[in-house]
Amino acid sequence: MIRFDAVTKRYGPRAAVDAVSLEVRARRICVLLGESGSGKSTLMRMVNRLVEPDSGRIMLDGRDIAGVPPEALRHGIGYVIQSVGLFPHWRVAQNVATVPRLLGWEDARVAARVDALLDLVGLPPDRFRDRLPHELSGGQAQRVGLARALAADPPVLLMDEPFSALDPGIRRELQGALRDIHAGTDKTILFVTHDVEEALLLADELAVMQDGRLIAHGRPGEVLARDAGPAVRHLFGEQTLAFHRLGTLPAAGAARPGEAAAAPLLPEGATLKQALMLMLEHGTDQLAMPGGGALHLSDILAAA
Amino acid sequence: MAEARSRLLTDAAATPSPAVAIPREATAAALLAALAAVLPFLLGWLSVAPNRLVSPRPVALPMAAAALPLGLFLLCCLGVALLARRRALLPWAEAVAGLALLALLATLGLGAGAALEGASRLARVAPGAGVWFSALALLLAGGCCAAGRGRMADATPTRFLAVALPGLALLVASGLLDPLSLLKEAAQRGPELRLALLRHAVLAAGALTLAAAVAVPLSLLALRRPRLEAALMTLANGLQVVPSIALFGLLMAPLAGLAAMWPPLRAAGIGGIGAAPAVIGIAAYLLLPLAAGMLAGLRQAPPELIDAARGQGMNERAILRHLRVPLGLGAMLGGLRVAAVQAVGLATLAALVGAGGLGAIVFQGIGQLAADLILLGVLPVVALSLCVDALLAAAQRLLMPPGTRA
């Protein structure tokens, strides 16, 4: 869906993005993870031409974006940023309707779309439609920001640290909401963050950047494999790498047949990390699997 | 002793004390109202001169003739002081200050009529120094009450003006103030005065339009070109330092030269003398407030907001229309307000290069040492500035989009 071909962007002598090639497949959430200054935001902002690459090519759905006028390109790409950037003098409904109005939709269609989107992001339209941005909490504002990005039903969403400024509880709520919305809408999402937990929670694919270069790319389990390079180990924490890796592995894959009588039951779809947490919680080394079968501590150690 | 004091303190605390509710501005307003009431008696109500060129002498106010408005005036001054003690009543205090001004003028008019009885037809009565100071004190008291409502943008004493201006028009129309020398002078020069006022307004408006025609497009261009911005602001700042009379003078020679070289210009009324150098000169001073206001306004929308707008596919024109202008309107209108008031003031000097306007009357008065004539030129200038300021302040309030006011 999105393909970067040896893309480079220089600011002065320093390369903010250095010959990055990356393919994001359709309907995936690809998380760009890196510390600040690693070039992840710059790479993302090249997709909607807010930043123009010095060399290299970016293909969107098979088309070179350099040939698409920036405004038209951006109408087809949702954009969510950390500061939300709602227009303070526009009501919520107007804010959500920004792109449909730029595209010249009819009023009735816009109004129906706005209500549907507010419902989708969990804000009852009757209560929120006519509010001004300063009357919203941080979490509500970012929900509106997400609705605005989805307004014209773009196939691609770019999200630049959208939840970083929120309180941890609100952040988890919105991460959950984003997963649900993604599951229901088939969007391709490029998501920038510096938060390791958030990246592992959301990512179908993980792309790790450092100093403008792409240093690892793949499914989270692959990126966190035992042979991960020193930069990845540093980013995820030398001591916690294995623990994070457990979070990427489904418990079902490590289970053995048989019964674990009187052992705590693991919820459906749990990861090995959750399984280990449950064992620690109950002080046991065995768990019962939801569909039958058992999981022993030694299975976890073997899988990790 | 200490016990008594502490009891006093607890008593004061126990009563549901109105002390908390007294606004800060109350003291100032009360003091000004007291000054307004006392000053005419201390510094004189009226002065009479045998004719318009002789210095006037103070005379006593004929109390019997003006008892009714005098009583009302003193009552109103007391009213201002008392009403200002409650924040909720401040608007009323402001309006009553306007009423006090009207009562002051009515007292003056009736008193002047009585003082002129039996005098020669050439005799002139003018307000005494006390009346001028009293009027100033009342205006300040009104301003105090207006400021007490809180925000700076609302500090124009609109209620004071709403009472005082129509009332003043009524007083003038009723002929109550006719005995005053200022009104006599005005009656004699009626058509001349109206023409000067109109010309003054045209000069100021013309200069404002010319300055806006330069400042607005240049500010829009300078928004993304730092070097143009530096040049524009250096020019606008530099012009402020040139004394206005020198600037008018500097413009005369090149404009005269242009008109000589290119006769159609002369036919259009452009030359070294007259409206052309005046309008250009005034406009030069308006560049700074206009350009500074424009640029500040255009930068009101924070960069993240512009980024969000761009990311959604708004082009620069849409960003200007939907974000920069509505969010920066307050600052832009603020600049326009400063420039408009400055234009009205500077247009007074246009008379120096033969452009006419109210300044012509002022300079004529200075030449003749006739104080009434000077006032006849100056008072409309003051009134015009106040009106322009109030009008643009109201526009500023009305046009600000709702989300930006909070």
Automatic annotation (TrEMBL), chain A:
Pfam families registered for this protein in UniProt: ABC_tran
Family classification: Belongs to the ABC transporter superfamily.
GO molecular function ontology, one term from the record: ATP binding
This protein's UniProt keywords: ATP-binding, Nucleotide-binding, Transport
Keyword ATP-binding: yes
Lineage, uppermost ranks: Bacteria, Pseudomonadati, Pseudomonadota, Alphaproteobacteria, Acetobacterales
InterPro entries documented for this protein: AAA+_ATPase, ABC_transporter-like_ATP-bd, ABC_transporter-like_CS, P-loop_NTPase
Domain ABC transporter: 2-236
Top-level division of the source organism's lineage: Bacteria
Name of the protein described by the UniProt record: ABC transporter ATP-binding protein
Membrane-traversing stretches: none
Gene3D superfamilies for this protein: P-loop containing nucleotide triphosphate hydrolases
UniProtKB/TrEMBL annotation, chain B:
Keyword Cell membrane attached: no
Cell compartment(s), UniProt: Cell membrane
Protein family membership: Belongs to the binding-protein-dependent transport system permease family.
SUPFAM superfamilies registered for this protein in UniProt: MetI-like
InterPro entries named in the record: ABC_transp_perm/SBD, MetI-like, MetI-like_sf
Membrane-spanning intervals of the chain: 28-48, 60-84, 96-116, 128-148, 160-177, 197-223, 235-262, 274-298, 346-366, 373-395
Pfam families: BPD_transp_1
Protein name: ABC transporter permease subunit
Organism: Teichococcus wenyumeiae
PROSITE patterns noted in UniProt: ABC_TM1
Domain ABC transmembrane type-1: 197-392
Gene3D superfamilies assigned: MetI-like
Keywords: Membrane, Transmembrane, Transmembrane helix, Transport
Primary location recorded for the protein, binned into one broad class: membrane
Membrane topology: Multi-pass membrane protein
